[in-house]
Design brief:
Helix content of chain B: 55-70%
Radius of gyration of chain B: 28 Å
Order of helices and strands of chain A: HHHHHHHHHHHHHHEEH
Largest sheet of chain B: none
Largest interface: A-B, 131 and 136 residues
CATH superfamily of the largest domain in chain B: MetI-like
Shape of chain A: flat
Radius of gyration of chain A: 26 Å
Oligomer: heterodimer
Order of helices and strands of chain B: HHHHHHHHHHHHHHH
Helix content of chain A: over 70%
Strand content of chain B: under 5%
Distance between the termini of chain A: 33 Å
CATH class of the largest domain in chain B: Mainly Alpha
Strand order of the largest sheet of chain A: 1-2
Shape of chain B: globular
Number of helices of chain B: 15
Number of strands of chain A: 2
Number of helices of chain A: 15
CATH architecture of the largest domain in chain B: Orthogonal Bundle
CATH topology of the largest domain in chain B: MetI-like fold
Distance between the termini of chain B: 14 Å
Amino acid sequence: MSASTTSVRGTVSRGSAGTTFRPGSKRQHEVTRLLPGPMLAIILTVLSAIVLIPVAYIFLASVNSDIGVANGEFWPSTFSLENYTKIWSSVGLAKGLANSVLVAGATAVVSAAMSVSIAYVLVRYQFRGRLSILRSLLALQSVPGTLMVLPVFVLFSSAASYLGVQVIGTQWGLFITYLTFAMPFSTWVMVTYLRGLPRELEEAARIDGASNLGVLVRIILPLSWPGIVVSGIFAFLLGWNDVLFASVMTRPDSQTAAVALQIFGASQEGGAIPLYGQMMAASLVCAAPVVILYLIFQRYLVGGLTAGGVK
Amino acid sequence: MSTDSFRELKAATGPAAEGQLARSSTAGQAPDADATPSAGTGTTQPGSRPAGRGKKPVRRKGLSERNRPLWMLIPGGLLMFVIIVIPLFLGIYMSALNLDQYTLRKWVSAPFIGVDNFVEALTDSPLLHSVWLSVSYSLIAMVVTLPLGIAAAVATQNAFKGRALIRSIFLIPYVLPSFVVATVWRTMFQPDGVVDSALGTFGMDGGLWLNGPQTYWTLILVQIWASWPFIYLLALSGLQSVDHEVHEASALDGALWWNKLRYVIFPYLKGPLALAFLIGMLHHINNFTLPFVLFGVPAPADVEVLPILTYVTSFQSFRFGLSAAMAFVSLVLIAIPLFIYLRAVKLDDAETPGGKK
């Protein structure tokens, strides 16, 4: 394949001596172009509008009054930033955010550490059951949470009644659950990443007498940090975005931001209008950490998404 | 994801591998690259990267069968066993029990009623209606997101000023947490909310979005808004696999843009989009957060999709056994696309572990 492509490339550049096919040149642009200009403009404008109008609305509604939002104003009649100060005291959003950061952060760190060691063994060693493990890693990603929530709940409450370990209502319960459900995908991301690493460095380290653990810590970890960051971020997102387990297994003092946000819709002010303005402000605050993580690691994350093919 | 760091790695390992080759050729070996692996038989010889990768079973076996750190699998494996596998079987067992809020505490001694829960779920519950809702809503959302995602990918494939910004904008719905997306749309769809007033300026009456039969379309609409960037991402990865020669060939043939897309480019997208279709269907059918936050529980009957029905049966009606039976039925439903997906995905690049793409 590579031989034939190079020969084709050779003949093309020789045949068209004078007109350059250099990547990035104007000529090049004409060749790879997929859509006529006006069509391109229409698609980009329409899709950007579809995305940006609701996003702009979150900003605008968050500085609007509750009545303004309830009356369907897109452009606020009164601007005020006080929603952003009120959200911290009206429902337990601050506590919820702190719990979310704690639980999702711990999930990210532990899941990344565990998935890199599992992926290392799966990629570099041959043993019976290896393919079954790889296959079940993919299958477990698709096990619906609603199927698991009741048995996990029962399991945890049994742990309380038979072992005397109180798990439900604590951050530990959420942490263990999120960690487990994050592992299959995080490990799969690491497997696809480690496959791209050449073995020569590891083999050289082995010649120098490094142990398995030594190879993992000294060679694999420094080389694969982009993959580790991606798999950690996906674990973080799983914990941050979860509503199902958080709504079943938390108490008011251990609830996450996702649960706290729902309370704004239920709490009503004076004239029975929900706290819309605060709800939109809180939505932005809840989305902020995720968006910031995404902006920082955008390049790696997009690759990870398509590699694993799962959110 | 890995291209840049991988390039650095290549740069770092390249000279070492060459040095290895040079040394073996000075040791009296033929400088033919194919001869190096057989020379390394028995001893673990590093390097020799350019030579036939994956054709060195003796050396590979020697390295990978000695002292395998399989213990590293234990912590994660144990965790997944306790929190996923045991509850999975526990759920199946519970589906044969008469469990309610009184018997749940001592579920071990709850009355065993065999397949009664399944009979009730299939004959005397909204389960089949929910299955129909889940499947049809997932399919409709999928069918609409496919052209959106493809159009977006085709439009952002060629470089233009501001493309990076556009690409970031397109991913916003995907990046926002589901619960935030649902909260925002719920606010926008309130009676007399911003959607209704926008429709009002065009003289249209939106009707009720969060109650009644129209909720089904509300759910589809929001699902489409939230999930088309996923199709976009996979379509984009498909477009990037199109060789430059293909563009040149179709340019030489003078293909019109539509013909070029239809007959030259789209065939490249079949694989990634088939994958996107399967995974997207799995996501939609499993999606709990979106309908839960959009409509609350108990949800209107027209959006009582499988995850919502299972949740409500457990945590609102406290029919835990029945709910477990329903969950089992949804697992069977999920198994169909999942099975196709697992058959289609290549687990390994080569028969030996660690083979490179």
